[in-house]
Structures are given as C-alpha cells and as structure tokens.
Amino acid sequence: METDFRLESSLWVGNKRYRALLTGWHFQWTEVDKKNRDKKTISVPVSEVVGVDEGQVEILPQKSTEDTDKDFTVFYVKRSSSGGLHGLLWRLGRIQFSCPSRVLRDQWTQHLRTALKTHSPVRPHRLLVFINPFGGKKKGRQIYHSLVAPLFELAGISSHVIVTERANHARDHLLKKDLTGFDGVVCVGGDGMFSEILHGLIGRTQQEAGLCENDPSVTLQPCPLHIGIIPAGSTDCVCYATVGVIDPVTSALHIIIGDSQPLDVCSVHHTAALVRYSVSLLGYGFYGDVLAESEKHRWMGPLRYDYAGTMVYLSNRSYAGIVQYLPADPLLSSPRDKTRCLSGCSVCSKSTGRLFPHPSDSGSLYSSHFSQFSNDSEEGEWVSVEGRFRCVSLTCMSSSCPKSPLGLSPSAHLADGTGDLILVWDTHPLGFLKFLYRHTSTQDQFDLPFVEVHRVKAVRFSLPAGKEEEAFEETGGLDEEERRHVETISRNGSQQQLTERSMGQEIANEQKSATPFLCGLCCSKAPAASVWNCDGEILPFTNIISRIHGQLVRLYARGIEDGATMHSCSEENCERA
Ligand SMILES: CCCCCCCCCCCCC/C=C/[C@@H](O)[C@H](COP(=O)(O)O)NC(=O)CCCCCCCCCCCCCCC
Ligand SMILES: Nc1ncnc2c1ncn2[C@@H]1O[C@H](COP(=O)(O)OP(=O)(O)O)[C@@H](O)[C@H]1O
Ligand SMILES: [Ca+2]
C-alpha cells in the first residue's frame, strides 16, 4: 500500500541543521553541514515510532525553561546488540526538533500521528496487566513500575494492573471476568505466569466459541487478545525464544508498537480430557525429575534448576515407555535443517495459509478446516517406538533460554503448526552429559547415536503393558475421586479441565516422594515411571496424548532479530554495545 504522506523540511536539533523526511513507511533525518553536504542519516520505520509530542518532553523533570512552542519530540525504537548469540536489545530513542514556525511544527506532529495510525493499526490502547510478585527474584512489581509503566504512559496506553494474590488468580480472572475494552493481556513474571495467561485466554475463547477443549481432534479457536510478556521469572523461556533477549524494556517496546507473533500451542490430554496446554517443554524423564526435585527447593530461586539438574543427573535414571508420533510433512522443514526461525520466518508465514485455508469465504481468518488429527487418510501414519529413555521431550518452539541460547530444538519454528519430539535413548552417564552440555553451545545435540528428533503434529506416550499399575502405585496414582472426575469428563464432554489438581501444590508433594532422587546411587529399587514437566508444572498423569495447534495465540513480539544480518542494525540507529 503506497501512502500519500510526504513531508520534508529543514529542522534543527540544538544548533545543527537536519533535513527531515517523512515518506511512505519511514521517518528519517539527515544532518546537513555548513556546505549543505549530507552527513549521517537515521531512518526509523513509522511502525517503530513510539510517540510524538509537542514541545520538549523529558521522561524525568528537567530544569530547562526555554521557549519550546516550536519544538516537537519524537520517541522511537533504538537497537543495540545484546552481545550474545541472540537477539537485539531495544531502547527508547528520543530526539527533539526545533521548527522555524509553529505552523510547521503542527504540520510535523499531525503528519507523524496520522502516519502512526495508518501504519500501526494493532497498537494496544488498553491492557490488562498481571504481576506475579513472587516470580523469579521477586522483582516483578519493581520491574513493572520502574521500567514498564512509564513507557506505557508515554505511549498513551492505559493499563489495569492486578498484582496476583495466589497461584491461578490471573487464569481465573481471564476465565470469568469481563474483558471488554482490553486489547491485550500482559504478564509480569516467568513461564509459569505466562502459562496461566495462556490457559485463561485459550479456555475463555473456546468457552465463548462453544468448543470442547477435551477432544484432541477439535480445531480450537485462536485467541483474539494478544499476550505480552514482561520477563521477571526463572527460566523466561517463552520471552527469550520469541524476543531473543530477556529485557523488560525491549518487551515493553514490542508491546507498545503492537508487534504480533503467532505461536503454536500443544494440548495435552488424558483419556479424552484436557490436562494442560504447553508451549515450551513437555518433558518426561530427566526434565520431569528436575522439575519435581526443584519444587522442593523453591526458596533457592532460579538456582533451584541447576541444583536439581545436578542431583537428577547424578541419579542416572532411565524410564521405559512407548512413544507414538504423527510425523509432520518432511518436505516443509526438518528439525535438522540447521535453519533458525527468525523474525519474518518464511516457513512460518507459509504455514499460515495451510493452517487457516479459507480466510475470505468463511468470513473469519480463524475458522479453519484444518483437521490433521481426524482419522482420515490425510493425517498420515502414526509411528511407534518402545524402549528405555533418558528423556522424551516435545517442544512447539526452539525453547531457547539463557541456559541454552539455541534451545532444546534450535531449528524449531514458532508458528508452523508442528512440534519437535526429542527422544534420548538410555545411554551411559557421560553420553547423556555430552547431550546436556551441547545445549550450552552451538554444537549439535542431535548428532549423537542415542538421540533422535522428529518434527511432529501429535504424540502419544504410554507405559509398557504391566508397568502402568506399578507406576501409578508409586506416584500416588489416581485416587477414587480423580478417577470419577476423569470418567465424568470423558462421558459428557464437559468443558471442565483437569488443571486444578495438576496446578496444586498437593500433587507436587505427592509426586515428590515418588521422584527417584539419587536412587541410581544409593537405593536398590528405582521407580518405574517419571513425571511429565509441562512448562514447569507437574502433570498428574503418565499416559498422555498431545497435539499441536498451529498459531493458537499471538504475542506482542516479532521473533528473534538476528543482530548479524539485520539491515537496520548496520544503520546509525543501532548502537552496538
Ligand atoms: C551441563 C549443562 C547442561 C545444561 C542443560 C540445559 C538445558 C536447558 C533446556 C531448558 C529448556 C527450558 C524449557 C523451559 C521450561 C520452563 O517452562 C520451565 C518453567 O520455568 P519457570 O520456572 O521460569 O516458570 N522450566 C523448567 O522446567 C526448567 C527446566 C530446566 C532444566 C535445567 C537443567 C539444568 C541441568 C544442569 C545439569 C547439570 C549436570 C551436571 C553434572 C555434573
Ligand atoms: N501471588 C501468587 N502467589 C503464589 N503463587 C503465584 C502467585 N502468582 C502467580 N503464582 C504462581 O507462581 C508460579 C511461578 O511463577 P513464575 O512467574 O513463572 O515464576 P518462576 O519463573 O520463578 O517460576 C506460577 O505457576 C504461578 O501460577
Ligand atoms: Ca512450531
């Protein structure tokens, strides 16, 4: 779409003259020297202009009382390298121009504001913000009030802030309360907080659409509200994998400019009832045991995972299981193709058409006829493997985090409608350590003889025949009430989820006793089953079925901007750190 906007004039910044130009999709300013020669140009896409204000605007009060009625200030996104393997840090850039006249000043501010409205139709006006005061290092409130709220205010976003008082407070609010008027929901916390928002919004959307979440073959309705994440947790994997850095200011700026990143979500079911949703890690064996062990040491904060990881590694466990999976189309992409899903990823954009095939004639972008899960011949053949595994992991995205900058599956895609299934067969302790260690570098963790990775649409896991009873006995099993609950749900297809139990501390306590720490070293009998880690929550079931729902939610993000190849980073508005 071409636009009619074009405004060009001389402007001053201090005593330097600039030629400023607003054309099409960009606002740029070039310093002009005394001989009228161009010096450096800074060019900002209109979509990355945060705001425009008359006069001199300071975030902090300033002493200057100069006459500024011919001035205007532009706030914009400025990039700097994060210095690591990953994305770019965003900062608020600010430039104050002086015009020769007030008329020209008004022309500039009006044109810039109109351009903003035209080019950024999805910017949020009103946000619902949930702060977990106990996430990560317990700095959620401080991070929001000191770094994020001032930026929202500057951008004219009004926010309704709720500091959570208990686990599931945010989820229950989203399931039950009036959400009219909100453009998006922001969580200040970690992956557990994000998961609450995810469950609340997906559940609410299906309720309103009259869809049953329990049936894995049902095509779910994508959520209309965007989700923003201000990282303040322990792993912050969803933030890291969708933005590329863990930085509250960068995330706030992505929210403000209304960036939109679709995200695949995996639903986990047990005997025809929904158990939970997952986006980052659905892991059995090592990652399940690490989570169960780490829950006992919450007081350690984010360090609990390193401690638990070491303990579980030393316990040297493997578990028997049957894994069945439905492979994705191998012609579209592969988990070993060495590509990375970056901002503007073509694999993901091509998937949109496949996932939502008839946007125009159905009247909604979201009513899809995608039915990969049904039992027709299109779905392909299930593959089944059985044996002993160190771990079985399913991830809908790379799941990169500061511990593992390229993630569990470095070539996974955020929004292609598939997940990567990683099978680590039983192996000697040093082999497994090598596998784990490769997550910390660019070495290929799949290039090991005991590791397999498959791009999949769905996965089933079950304990081998005869093992199941034994395992449930050891893990506390299902009590009578729980069994009845599951049966009721499968009979009447009720909307009720099996999440209450899985989210409760209760279950974690129960599983603790079952989780086999140091057994390999000191005990004679090792338990037959591990537990599932579902984005940091322990699931109360071992036999599960899970399915990937392509692009079920949207985040205020744009995927990882690769510092090395980003065009805009070679320009002057990039400050290399
Ligand atoms: C030897 C070094 C090994 C490093 C291995 C790093 C693998 C990291 C993969 C991380 C995937 C993360 C997926 C995200 C999961 C989160 O949803 C979820 C919840 O996060 P929240 O508490 O912020 O809400 N987080 C988790 O479940 C944490 C999983 C963390 C696993 C860390 C394992 C550390 C292992 C250290 C092993 C050390 C062995 C040393 C032997 C001498
Ligand atoms: N006010 C609260 N009190 C106790 N738990 C809470 C509260 N608010 C949220 N939670 C729960 O805390 C858990 C961990 O939160 P999260 O923000 O992910 O931090 P971390 O990354 O450190 O685990 C989440 O599962 C969430 O449900
Ligand atoms: Ca995916």
TrEMBL record:
Pfam families documented for this protein: CERK_C, DAGK_cat, PH_CERK
Record's keyword terms, sorted: Kinase, Transferase
Region (Disordered), start-end ranges: 470-498
GO cellular component entries: membrane
Organism domain of life: Eukaryota
Transmembrane segments annotated in the record for this chain: none
Residue stretches making up the DAGKc domain: 122-272
Positions with biased composition (Acidic residues): 470-480
Keyword Cell membrane assigned: no
Biological-process GO terms, alphabetical: ceramide metabolic process
InterPro entries linked: ATP-NAD_kinase_N, CERK_C, CERK_PH, Diacylglycerol_kinase_cat_dom, Lipid_Phosphate_FormReg, NAD/diacylglycerol_kinase_sf
Keyword Magnesium: no
Biased composition (Polar residues): 489-498
A GO MF term: ceramide kinase activity
Protein name: Ceramide kinase family protein
